[in-house]
Amino acid sequence: MFRSKKKVEKKGLKIIIVGCGKVGSTLVEQLSKEGHEITIIDRNSSRLQNLTNLYDVMAVEGNGASFSVQLEAGIEDADLFIAVTSADELNLLCCIVAKRVGNCSAIARVRTPDYNKEANYLREQLGLAMIINPDYEAAKQISDILCLPDALEVNAFAHGQVELVKFKIGEKHVLNGITTSEIVNKIGSGLLICALEREGEIYIPRGDFLLKSDDIIYFVVTRKNSKDFFDKINIKTNRVKNTLIIGGGRSAYYLSLSLLRMGVNVEIIENNKERCEELSILLPKAIIINADGTDEGVLREEGIERAESVIPLTGIDEENILLSLYTRQVSDAKIITKINRINFKDVISKMDLGSIIYPRYIVAEEIIAYVRAKSNSKSNSIETMYNLFDQQVEAIEFIIDTKSAVTDIPLKDLKIKMDVLVSFINRSGNIIIPNGNDSIQVGDTVMVVTKQSGFHSIVDILE
Amino acid sequence: MNGSIVRYILGQVIKIEGILLLLPTLTGYIYHERVANYYLIIAGVSLILGGLLTLKKPSNSVFYLKEGCVITSLSWIFLSIVGCLPFYISREIPNFVDALFETISGFTTTGASILYEVENLSRSTLMWRSFTHWIGGMGVLVFLLAIVPLSGGSNFNLMRAESPGPSVGKLVPRLKNTAQLLYMIYFIMTIIEILILVLSGMPVFDSITLSFGTAGTGGFGVRNDSIASYTAFQQWVITIFMLLFGVNFNLYYLLLFKEFKRAFSMEEVKAYLGIVIVATVSIVISLNRYIPAFADNLRITMFQVASILTTTGYSTADFDTWPTFCKLVIVLLMFSGGCAGSTAGGIKVSRFVIGVKTVSKELTGYIHPRSVKKIQMDEKPIDHEVLRSTNVYFLTYTMIFVISMLIIALDKEDIVTCFTAIAATLNNVGPGLAMVGPSKNFAHFSDLSKLVMMIDMLAGRLELFPLLIMLNPTVWKEIITTSGHKKKKL
Fold it and tell me: A154-232, superfamily in CATH?
């Protein structure tokens, strides 16, 4: 009578999320879409109310570290416990209690640099599944982009052997006006365009596809070949030499640390005197300037016109956006904008803000990759996962550990769903950018790019 | 206003009604009644109509409390209009207003009837009348949530608009599972009652229809004298089940998961049982002074108290002939109603518990002006919002009550009739006193009064606000403008 669902609903995991701030809400949004049973705990009842109005989740008001509150939320038969309150210590305590009461995996958010160095130690000693640090992840992604400043986004796969690069095709670019199949002849094999955005529409190009200027593309390229290719397609491969960071928060610290290690000159403008002093102790090689970063005069004085890259990392999104827009006006610097809180993604993506980083989505992606791997009967078959084009496209790296319907059959003979692309195969360290004759074998890891969401295992790519 | 989701859910509701109409159809074929054909035709028509409305899935399935209220109110109205067609078309209730009154009375589990005689109705119609109680008891949208895969989390707004009580929570994280659990408990308890009644020697047809009426706390019987002519044992069984269906269903959930301590410490349930005991004892004492027959008095009183408190409305005695004190207690019970989260109507015990606690808090405030005290229930602080909405509920309730009473007073009935008629319909009880007493009916009212009482019954079942929100002109304007213009595409 009623339209029966084609696929039998996968039994979701029982997940408890403590803390409904930015990351918590993002997790609720994404995980509830994937059909898990979610219970949220927070002290603030109006936040809970907002989320229960929008998503099919159960809310428990109270302290997430309290034993009785956890019992009420059903910790005894929960599969996963995620603590993302604003306090690191509380998160850790929540997880410790949860591990004692229930038989679940626990994930904690830990942001303070003090603990970050010991993250691995903490994770092992406390038996946590994962420790996440949005600020650190954001900083890592920013520094990846700064290594390839022409790209809008750089994500590493296959232990860093493959890069997924987001790039906007300019008017005079070599890629303008050629088709995807001509790339092999004109530029060489080893580069594959996985996804493309044109006038708001997303395409997964298969076969012949004519590239135009203003297209935004994602392509995979092996790191070994990357320098050659980037030269051929006129992408600057030189990493930036100096960076101006506005705002000296935690992300600024993590970013400076990794940039200084790569030998990039870092200049941080921070308004708070005490914080400046702290930073100068933590980062002796960086130039710390105690001034208001939102003051035009200060920025000019510090040479914003000459900076190779400018990264506003103040705590206020609106300020970051304004600073990026201002920088765009006065200089040619590479700009990366971090958006913590505000939503309006459609509006933001239409503004000229350079690369945009959403720390909360980065963490959510990591956790969702973990959750998908966990809810899959086969152990751990998702290695990494990224969302492309505002979550309209997913790039998932699968580990192929058993024989299945996709293995040992040439790709051209597989009935692969529309809008799904196998973008590379990692065969014991050898990266294969596949054509129709290649096949997936046991032991490989494979990256799949798809417009559909919710793939749990590699066989989901088949019709 | 998300117009397409309103259309889609309305379509689903009508489809479900089409399926549910097959039960009276089946009954009719078993008893070889020609009326069954009407039921079959209307079932078919509503299936087709519902199918057409649900042909296109809404692109945007997000909606808010406002839409939830509109969907709920419209669903109940459509449900009643379609549901009254068999009565009307089969000419068993030849007047359309009367047919609609009877159906709304059924779905809202009121049990107020406009019929003088029920024994000469066809079996299919009797079955449908009682079945509407069962459907309306737990709510048709909750049923929808339990079986139809609706995506998105917004559906909670539907449940909130339809379920009774000051604050609505979930039993388990997924709404769908919550709804399924509720219906499972409901279904199993109904089956148990049917079995017990059948085993006690009641005819199968009567057992099923009466159990439907008890489960939904409705009150339509299949005999002219309601329950009076059944055996004492059968009356006791129905008494107990009426009381059980008036208990908050969370209790059964907690029992199901063996959380006995939490289950038996529910303040509302304690207060509910307290009311039952106090009311029964005071009426029995008062009755014994007139007729000294304790066992009979206890049975009759217990039945009447259970029936009125849970707003079922079955009767084994004409309490209109009782002493004034007993009548007053009965009228007061009408307002109390059962527990929140049960199938009963009325203002709900939990609202009274909260109300009493608020009053005592305010009084302490006079003695210790700087005292700070948060009102708690079941050892949990009550949200300020819940307190506020409870107070507003009382006020709104009184206003609706007074206005309705004034309108039906135009009919030249006496004060007791007017007062108890509104009390009986707004609280979804069924019988009142005087001209609407257990042995009388509602047929003698004018069409205007009947319309007012229909609105009262719906308002009472949906707990006032959803209906008021739907009747609000701003919401109407939104419905009209969004159906006229296509939304701007992003």
Answer: Regulator of K+ conductance, C-terminal domain (3.30.70.1450)
Yes or no: say if B303 and B314 are a contact pair by the CB < 8 Å rule.
yes
**Contact flag A2-B175 (C-beta cutoff 8 Å):** no
Domains A14-132 and A242-357 share a fold: yes
Domain segments of chain A as ranges = 14-132, 154-232, 242-357, 373-461
Q: What is the pLDDT of residues B8-44, one digit of tens each?
A: 889 999 999 999 999 999 999 999 998 899 999 999 9
Buried residues in A139-148 as b, exposed as e (16+ CB within 10 A): bbbbbbbbbb
Q: How far is CA A325 from CA A311, A317, A351, B160, B319, in A?
A: 11, 12, 8, 45, 80
B151 to chain A nearest CA, in Å? 9
Task: Give the residue carrying structure tokens 């010991």.
Answer: A118
Please indicate whether, in this complex, the C-beta atoms of A45 and B383 are within 8 angstroms of each other. yes
Task: From residue A284, give the alpha-carbon distance in Å to each of A248, A280, B39.
Answer: 14, 5, 86
Rg (C-alpha) for chain A, rounded Å, is 23
CA B158 to centroid of chain Cα atoms: 16
Asked if B173 lies within 8 A of A52 by C-beta distance, the reply is no
- Residue closest to B127 by CA, chosen among B39, B257, B60: B39
Q: Are A254 and A279 in contact (CB under 8 A)?
A: no
CB contact under 8 A, A56 and B383: no
Residues of chain B found within 8 Å of residue A454, distances taken between Cβ atoms? none
Give whole-number Cα distances, B115 to B118, B223, B276, in Å. Answer: 6, 11, 30
Can you give the pTM of this predicted structure?
A: 0.79
**Structure token digits, residue B77:** 């109205």
Chain B residues in contact with A57 by the CB 8 A cut-off are: 153, 173
Query: How far, in Å, are A145, A343, A350, A352, A360 from residue A347 at the CA level?
Result: 22, 9, 5, 10, 18
Q: With beta carbons under 8 A apart, name residues in chain B contacting A80.
A: none
- Which pLDDT score is estimated for B134? 93
CATH class of A373-461: alpha beta
Query: Is residue A32 less than 8 Å (CB to CB) from chain B?
Result: yes
The answer to whether A52 faces chain B, any CB pair under 8 Å, is yes
Whether the Cβ atoms of residue B228 and residue B315 lie closer than 8 Å to each other: yes
- Is B126 strand, coil or helix? helix
Which residue in chain A has the smallest CA separation from B63?
A54
pLDDT digits (tens, 9 = 90+) for A192-208: 888 888 887 888 887 67
**Sequence-distant (≥ 6) Cβ neighbours of residue A59 within 8 angstroms:** A39, A40, A41, A42, A48, A49, A51, A52
Proportion of chain A in helix, strand, coil states, percent, rounded to 5: 35, 25, 40
Contacts of B157 in chain A (CB under 8 A): 53
CATH 3.40.50.720 corresponds to the domain A242-357 = yes
Q: Is A343 on the interface with B (CB under 8 A)?
A: no
CA–CA dist A126, A119 (Å, integer): 10
CB contact under 8 A, B173 and A45: no
Q: Chain B residues with CB-CB distance to A under 8 A?
A: 12, 15, 19, 62, 64-65, 147-149, 152-157, 169-170, 172-177, 383, 490
Residue A80 has pLDDT above 60, yes or no: yes
Options 3.40.50.970, 3.10.450.50, 3.40.50.150, 3.40.50.720; CATH of A14-132: 3.40.50.720
Q: Which residues of B touch A54 (CB under 8 A)?
A: 62, 153-154
Order of strands across the sheet that contains A242-246: A287-290, A265-270, A242-246, A309-312, A334-338, A355-357
**What's the mean pLDDT when you consider all of chain B?**
88
**Closest-CA residue in chain B for A36?**
B174
Q: How far is A339 from chain B, CA to nearest CA, in Å?
A: 22
Nearest alpha carbon to residue B305 among B332, B326, B278, B279 = B279
What pLDDT is stored for residue B237 in this prediction? 94
